Description:
Structural class: mainly alpha
Number of helices: 2
Strand content: under 5%
Mean pLDDT: 74
Low-confidence stretches: none
Oligomer: single chain
Helix content: 25-40%
Distance between the termini: 83 Å
Order of helices and strands: HH
Amino acid sequence: xxxxxxxxxxxxxxxxxxxxxxxxxxxxxxxxxxxxxxxxxxxxxxxxxxxxxxxxxxxxxxxxxxxxxxxxxxxxxxxxxxxxxxxxxxxxxxxxxxxxx
Length: 101
């Protein structure tokens, strides 16, 4: 590699990021603002939402199945008995004759 193309190592950064506020007078104030926002608002909010979603007991009772025609449009599937999709689940996909028998 020719000498004129070879990179020259720099021992120090010409502009120190901490000293950058001398040019703009805004960098340090924004860093402090976002530091306090994350410490006082974001972290407690994440902790509170974690508590509400994971630790508190949750009772999810499945509602009673109602056999209304507009809630269950059906078409014949080309496999099995024609009423169950390839991803059928008895818990999530209610079919009117499954609850009766």
